[in-house]
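Quarterly update from the structural biology core.
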Amino acid sequence: MRPWVPLAATALALAPLAVVHPLRVQGRSMEPALREGELRWVLRAWAAGPPRRGQVWVVAGPEGSAVKRVVGLPGERIELADGDLRVDGRRLDPPAGARLERQDGTWTCGSGYFLLGDNRSASRDSRAWGPLPGSAFEGRLLGE
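Predicted structure, tokenized:
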């Protein structure tokens, strides 16, 4: 056998990991959509396109990598009042099964993105961090 064949076979077998990679969900911030310990596939940011509202992404937050849902896009104003979420004055319906918290606040995205966990009472997200820049996005969860 030629010496390069095993190397080529290994490279070919690992090539898909350049585009997608597995992720084990940690924490309860995205329940019930994602359960702790669940294995999911992540499409790397360079292949996923720009973040869109409602998508679930792995981001590099101030406290390390986190899985959150995109709620606000650059230039938008986010308001939380009595459990309602409004973007530029329009009410957004929460994802199915999302656990809402009665926290009030207003944020302006500027050039960043506003992200929330579906289980808001157990989530550290843009309410604490503020909006995150596009460079913080590491990959989009597939199947969400």
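The longest strand covers residues 64-72.
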